[in-house]
Design goal:
The chain has about 170 residues and is of the alpha+beta class. Helices cover about 50% and strands about 10% of the residues. The protein is built from 5 helices and 4 strands, in the order ββαββαααα.
Length: about 170
């Protein structure tokens, strides 16, 4: 004897194996229907009972679910990791003279935040964008500091030369 849990969530039975076979033939139950043998506490699928395998009824045809889309857009553009994306653009735009120092600094800071977010939430992606922002920002910062030092060294040297020149 068996108890059937219908697709409506209600329990039917106890019924004998012949009744279950009849319901299989009528399509009222299928191999995925939950069934419990008398004396058991476990619900199992009807198809897992050897006495109902090969009953002449094919397993139910379920509509194929499409595989989840490969999120290629978020790999190319990490729209779920705004700090990494902004760091990338700031790193690129930091190559613009005069404003590069400030944009480079912001690119480094946001790149670090973007890396932290990508580590916490791997589905957000954006590690490459964050690293690009950090590297470009750092290179531009170093370049500006070197230019700043060279400019003041040249200005200081020019000041010393003009101060020691001819006086009238």
């Amino acid at each position: 004897m068996y108890t059937i849990k219908g697709h409506d969530g209600k329990e039917y039975g106890p019924v004998d194996a012949a009744q279950v076979q009849q319901w299989l033939g009528q399509g009222r139950v299928d191999s995925s229907t939950l069934i419990r043998a008398e004396g058991s506490t476990d619900w199992r699928s009807l198809g897992s009972f050897p006495e109902f395998v090969g009953a002449g009824v094919p397993p139910p045809i379920r509509p194929a679910t499409p595989p989840p889309p490969a999120n290629t857009i978020s790999t190319l553009i990490p729209y779920r990791n705004a700090p990494a994306l902004i760091a990338y653009y700031l790193g690129v735009f930091s190559l613009i003279p005069c404003v590069g120092f400030f944009l480079g600094l912001a690119a480094v800071v946001l790149g670090i935040f973007g890396l932290k977010q990508a580590s916490k939430h791997p589905e957000a992606k954006g590690k490459a964008h964050a690293w690009t922002g950090i590297i470009l920002g750092t290179l531009v910062l170093i370049g500006h500091i070197v230019l700043f030092v060279l400019f003041f060294a040249a200005a200081s040297r020019h000041q010393n030369q003009s101060g020691a020149g001819w006086r009238m």
